[in-house]
Amino acid sequence: MDEVIVKFKGRVIFRQYIQKKRKRFNIKMYKLCDKSGYTFDMRVYLGKESHSATYDMSAAHATVRHLTCRIEDLEHKIFMNYFFSSPRLSDDLDRCKINARGTVRPNREDMSCAFEPKQL
To answer: pTM of the full predicted structure?
Structure first.
């Protein structure tokens, strides 16, 4: 699970401008791929989607759930970076028999006290 930025200079409403990137005008996509690079599913980021985010589910959580709906109950493993991963998402994917692995930030919402930074 990762986000991909594709350089694009055409005219579309959902084109993004990121000043500090080498590819300043681009289209952002979220992809679910296997280890060989085969794309199972992808979703184009069309801008802020308030309808996908709810009180108990963030927009990143909703994106992951949307992309993984085709592989539920197949006991696949999904790897993701800190942007997508959260304790709630891991629990949700576990109920769907999908093993989730990923990096997390210690200050993430709902993070256990066991993962807080330790002083030496």
So the answer is: 0.76
